[in-house]
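Could someone model NAP with this protein?
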Amino acid sequence: MFSIIAAIGKNRELGKGGDLVFHIREDMKFFKNTTMGHTVVMGRRTWESLPKKLPGRKNVVVTRSGIDGADETVTDLPKYIQENKNTEEEIFVIGGAMLYDEFLPYAKNLYLTEVNASAEADVFFPSFDKNQYKKISLGNGNDEGIKYEFVKYERIEGES
Ligand SMILES: NC(=O)c1ccc[n+]([C@@H]2O[C@H](COP(=O)([O-])OP(=O)(O)OC[C@H]3O[C@@H](n4cnc5c(N)ncnc54)[C@H](OP(=O)(O)O)[C@@H]3O)[C@@H](O)[C@H]2O)c1
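Reply:
Sure, complex below.
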C-alpha cells in the first residue's frame, strides 16, 4: 500500500530551487518517526536534495537517467506501482511534486503537514478532492509564529 507524506503551504507549496520551502523542526521529527523502518520512494530530484541516504529506511529512487547509492532504482514506474500497490507493507512516497502527482491515484493515506503560511515556490502538491478522504488530525504546533497541523487523510473505501 502506498502512503504519501508531504509538508505543504496554504497554496500547496512544496519546494523552490530544489529545496524545501518550510524547515520546521517538529515536522522533520514527524517525517522521521512516521517513515522509520519503512520503504521510502522518491523522485531523482528529491534524492539529489538529500545530504545522504535516509538511514533506517529502504531508499527507492525513480529515475530514467540512473543514479548511484540508492537501495533500489526504478525506471519502469507503472510496473513498480502495479507490483506494490496491494502490499500489506506501507510504502511511503516522499516526493517531490512529480512523484506525488503520479502516486496520488494509488495512495491510501496522505500524511500532510499543513503549514498555515504561504511562500514562493516552483513546485506544488497536486490538488485533490478532500471528500474522497476521511480527515484525522494528528496534532498541531507553532514554529516561531508559523502554525501547522499534522493531518492524515485516509481514502474512503470504494473511492478510487
Ligand atoms: N514539501 C515536501 O514535503 C517535499 C518533499 C519532497 C520534495 N520536495 C521538493 O520538491 C522538489 C522536487 O520535486 P520535483 O517534482 O522537481 O522532482 P521529483 O519528483 O523529486 O523528481 C523528478 C524526477 O523523478 C524521475 N521520475 C519522475 N517520474 C518518473 C517516471 N514516471 N519514470 C521514471 N522517472 C521518473 C525523473 O528523474 P530523471 O530526470 O533522473 O529521469 C524526474 O526528473 C524539490 O524542491 C524538493 O525540495 C518537497
